[in-house]
């Protein structure tokens, strides 16, 4: 859980701990809880102990940072795929404080901090004013309700990149109200046991919203389900008919191509106001 990532939109994943507590409908079929259970780690729930890691694991980001320096290219690190960095849980405060220091010492890594708790981001993060250039603030938005709840809070975070993970997309979402202040949108369907279908019209709508606002759009996956081409729509719901074929078979093409939009970070950095923080460390 810390090597080259299989997640399409990042280079590496790093988990300062495993475990979390469900907070919204997007958590219903949590892949991280399923994976933890498979390895027999009972770490999900408000009173369950979190799984933490030793010194060797914490050295991994420094290896990636050195590799990035040697290659002369930045690397993206998703933190955390098996937890929520901004969970309000005192038992992992030591790991969280160590994470901030690791971020400060790895300036060639762009740290993607994705949370379902954006209300805690400014409370727990150690940075004031503008965040370091290598920290991206992101929140999950699985439906319209969570969009209205979470995005306005995310927009208060002074990060160079503010991104949305619209995954698992379980209903139509209109993002147009906020896209002028968003630098990246990822969309994906649900996978795993109990996965809910994602209608193609929902995905196309978000893609079109992003294109109109010139916001990079990344389509991660259909999930377990695909719509049946050249078939009539369901007579009652007018929705395309769906078939479960599995994540791998469903793939990630939308309208005949992949969509791999990424934030234009160099332009965003260049556009920062005079006198803004220009280093990658702690404020």
Written account of the structure:
This protein has 283 residues and is an alpha/beta fold. The protein has helices at 31-38, 55-58, 60-71, 93-104, 121-124, 144-154, 200-213, 247-250, 265-270; strands at residues 12-13, 17-18, 51-52, 75-79, 109-115, 135-140, 161-166, 184-188, 217-221, 225-227, 242-244. Strands 1-4-5-6-7-8-9 form a 7-stranded parallel sheet. Strand 8, helix 7 (200-213) and strand 9 form a beta-alpha-beta unit. The chain is globular, with a radius of gyration of 19 Å. Residues 275-283 have low confidence and may be disordered.
Task: Present the secondary structure layout.
Elements: E1 12-13, E2 17-18, H1 31-38, E3 51-52, H2 55-58, H3 60-71, E4 75-79, H4 93-104, E5 109-115, H5 121-124, E6 135-140, H6 144-154, E7 161-166, E8 184-188, H7 200-213, E9 217-221, E10 225-227, E11 242-244, H8 247-250, H9 265-270
Parallel strand pairs: 1-4, 4-5, 5-6, 6-7, 7-8, 8-9
Antiparallel strand pairs: 2-3, 10-11
**Principal-axis shape:** globular
Amount of helix:
25-40%
Instruction: State the major sheet.
Output: 7 strands, parallel
Radius of gyration: 19 Å
Spatial strand arrangement across the major sheet? 1-4-5-6-7-8-9
Number of strands: 11
Strand content: 15-25%
């Amino acid at each position: 859980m810390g090597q080259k990532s299989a997640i399409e939109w990042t280079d590496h994943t790093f988990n300062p701990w495993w475990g979390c507590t469900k907070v919204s409908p997007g958590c219903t079929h949590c892949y991280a809880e399923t994976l933890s259970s498979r390895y027999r780690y009972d770490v999900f729930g408000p009173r369950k102990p979190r799984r933490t890691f030793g010194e060797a694991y914490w050295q991994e980001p420094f290896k990636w940072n050195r590799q990035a320096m040697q290659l002369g290219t930045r690397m993206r690190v998703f933190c955390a795929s098996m937890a929520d960095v901004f969970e309000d849980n005192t038992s992992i405060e030591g790991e969280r404080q160590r994470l901030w220091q690791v971020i400060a010492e790895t300036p060639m890594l762009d740290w993607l901090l994705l949370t379902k708790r954006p209300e805690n981001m400014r409370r727990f993060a150690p940075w004031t004013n503008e965040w370091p250039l290598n920290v991206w603030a992101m929140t999950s938005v699985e439906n319209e309700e969570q969009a209205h709840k979470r995005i306005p809070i995310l927009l208060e975070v002074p990060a160079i990149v503010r991104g949305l993970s619209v995954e698992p997309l379980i209903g139509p979402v209109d993002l147009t109200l906020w896209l002028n202040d968003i630098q990246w949108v990822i969309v994906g369907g649900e996978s795993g046991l109990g996965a809910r279908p994602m209608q193609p019209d929902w995905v196309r709508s978000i893609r079109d919203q992003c294109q109109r606002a010139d916001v990079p759009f990344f389509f991660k996956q259909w999930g377990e389900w695909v719509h049946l081409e050249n078939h009539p729509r369901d007579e009652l719901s007018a929705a395309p008919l769906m078939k479960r074929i599995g994540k791998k078979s469903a793939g990630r093409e939308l309208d005949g191509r992949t969509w791999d939009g990424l934030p234009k970070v160099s332009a965003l950095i260049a556009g920062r106001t005079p006198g803004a923080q220009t280093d990658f460390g702690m404020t």
